[in-house]
Amino acid sequence: MDEVSVVVAHSERATLRVGDVFLKVDGDRARLDREAEAMALAPVPTPKVLWHRPSVLAIAAVPGAEIARLGEPSTASPAAWAAAGAALRNLHDAPLPPWPARGGRGIGELSAELDAECGRLVTGGILPADLVTRNRRVAEAALRPWTPVFTHGDLHVAHVFVDGEEITGIIDWSEAGPGDARRDLATLTLGHQDRLGDVLAGYGTDVDLDVIRAWWSVRSLLAVRWLAEHGFDPFAPGCEVDVLRSRM
Description:
CATH superfamily: Aminoglycoside phosphotransferase (APH), C-terminal lobe
Shape: globular
CATH class: Alpha Beta
Protein name: Aminoglycoside phosphotransferase
InterPro entries: AGP_Transferase, Aminoglycoside_PTrfase, Kinase-like_dom_sf
Organism: Actinocatenispora thailandica
Radius of gyration: 18 Å
């Protein structure tokens, strides 16, 4: 009999694994519907949807292994990282999905959210003021107009699976929607900044590196408190706090 294991669980959603089947349970039914639709629309390898019911999505495991883990060196080849960049370019070149950006946030809303979160990090004693101030300054470069593209929205390394030099699957499309292409590129290389050149070689177009560095700061500043409150450790070596420190 296959054992049931909890992959991740918090107040918004949970993912369980039973053998080679993953069950995603989400309190936001519309978000789960969008996730299933995003996988159907995305022109990149995605998990096979086995069945879909209100609040539950069953998907098959994808072959291969994660391209990397946050806080650990990646053993994937430069060609594998380039393949991830090429897959991401295919996604960004695809037609926009038929739903608005998550939360409908524009530049002003994102800036206000970032300022509020920076304040909480300092007043709550989570991070020192100079570290937060420096990264908020770096983050400003991300707060500029962009042309929306089809983005994954949460493309960290554990969501990209490879077998040798082949991308075998990109998982967890719960945040997919119109967004900034540079945010996906930054999320993929967060904590693996040394692989950015390989990713961009596969992506195949000029990219403003200052904007990607800015998104590293944005994502880390917005994630630290949430991660700490939900049982994750952003202070672990190579993770979000180390990314922020590298901006100093």
